[in-house]
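Cont'd.
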Amino acid sequence: MLTDTPRKLTIIRDRSDKVFRGVIRAGGSTVLVIMVLVGSFLAYRASQALNKAGWNFFTEQAWEPDAGKFGIAAVLVGTILIATVAIFVALPLSLGTALFITEYAPRQIRSFLVSIVDLMAAIPSVVFGLWGFFFLQQSIVPVSRWISQYFGWIPGLGVTGVDPTDPLATTTIYTSSTFIAGIVVGIMVTPIVTSIMREVFSQTPVGEREGALALGATRWAMIRNVVLPFGQGGIIGGTMLGLGRALGETIAVYMIISPVFVIQPHILQNGASSVAALIALRYGESTQMGLSALMAAGLALFTMTLIVNFGASIVVSRSRSGAAS
Amino acid sequence: MATTTKVAKSTNALVGESRKKRPSSKTTTIHPRGEFVGVEPKRTLGGIRVGDLLSIVGAAVAAFALTIVLATQVAPITGGIAFFVVWYLFFVGLYALLVSIDDTKTFVMDRVIAVMVTSLAVLLFSVLIFVIVFVVGRGAEALPYLNFYTEDMGLAGPLDPLKVGGVVHAIAGTLIQISIALAITIPLGIAAAVYLNEIPGRFSRFVRTIVEAMTALPSIVAGLFIFATAILMFGVPKSGFAASLAISVMMLPIMIRSADVVLRLVPQTLKEASIGLGASQWKTVWNVVLPTSRSGLTTSIILATARGVGETSPVLLTSGFTAELNVNPLESPMVSLPLAIFQFVKSPEPTMIARGFGTAAVLMLLVLTLFVIARIIGGMTPEKSARARIRRAEFFGWFPATARKIMALIRRRTPNVKEAL
């Protein structure tokens, strides 16, 4: 009796194929080399500063590399605070807009709104910086003041060194703050976050939507029980991607804040800091050691955005909505 | 018979104006067999009832009045933003109250959420439009001067009027830098994306992971990398070329990632058909894969370009700054549009600030152009453009022809590529 055994398959490629595969392999490898080079070079140059500063690098607030006294405690906290404010602004705005586009907007204008959101995501950050510096800086002062006056007892919302009830007190203390930078960055990342959330919401199975509606659910009940659970991964993932962008944002933040190198927990108060703005501020005057210290700060920032981004992609791919993609 | 009439009436009430007269859930209609119940009118599903509109307008007006009372009599509110926030809170509260007169809790919730979601969307769109209008409005002062587009700032000092000087050096710089960056990234990026899809394996998965990781690289760190390697280590002068390198490092992962997604969407059956007909892998890629995904690939390139054009931070570290036109990317500083904006608004002089805003308007126009081109190319599949044409004809039937054409350009969209990085 003849048995059918698996046969060995061989592929003989002709010369054009060999060349082609060689070329694209070379392309892929080149990209890999460049990317790895960036990462390892950063790590290598940063190690010089990290060796010198040791663990103090994470606890020291001042930034005087040439005096050997430098650390990212202040700038890292500042970056995280700005990104947190940004997410507080971006999350409700983008969730609302994404739901509006997929659920509430008239069908005829839906694709137009989608285009607008995508276009907004491409607006250069320097434009948002201009707006933040020349418009928001002044017009937000009454709001900051009002918040600090009535909610100053909440940690972080207070303002030191000024009596909020004094109507004649100077208002410059409320400018160039973490709060303003956070709002600008938040508005900047909102279109991207919206775009991701909308994409996920629009993939909700029609059968489940209609099932909920047929059982007598109102539109909100349908959204809460079908769309939001389905899009959970997209909401979290999109927000985290936005967070990654917010952490790395340089120029809009740099234009707005007035940098300080102490931990500034009062988000409404003048003076803030961020890693990216620190690099933009100090790269020119740097010595060998100073540059290495900046590299270390850049590496810390990169590590942070990397973790956030990978977290986002894991959340998205684990969720029901992301399983198909 | 009496029951039937009653029930039929209440069925009408259900589709009528008010939910107040909704029949109690205990009444059930069963028409006797064979009885003529009349032609059922077609029911409109959805739509806006007069009552809804009235309660929204009523709540808005009442909230406005309440806010004024609060602002003038009880607790002073300063500034438009605070006034608006207080008004909005009152509005939502009053609207909930108005709806709850007629409806049950479930409906109140539904209505209030609908209003809140809509207002969040309106808020976002109006803020974004306001940002653009604000920037273009402040720049409008500088835009009408022809010399703004034809001269550089070499002979114009901070105190000179807008009649002197312009941003042609920044426009030229941006175009040169992005061209070099594209010359580097397009071949590399497309080759890498094809590699990820055509030669799957452990190594290409590794490459994909690294590329994905690199999309998280903050643009300032990309600039810092080029600053430390090319400029400080290899002695490349601060120039347009160095800036292009920095932009390339930033753009490359973005482009590869979206091109990878696009290439993955090419139907497997098409590839198999090509190989089944005896074509080699190279022929399959060249004649099937790339042509099929041409529009998507173009879109991914253009969207990455839009990102690269607008980035300030890598350029800030690598290109240096000059006020003069320089078309040689290899030597001496070369300024680009975002960097020019950044430098202009550092000056306290109103004319310089106006120039900065004007430059921002030019930059946004450039990004908009790239985006519209991406949409046109991205929307180029035959069935899609046909569908879009029908939709447009339905919705924009009343629009004048020119406006319709413009809207058509904006409304086209691609499903595949998103600038979601």
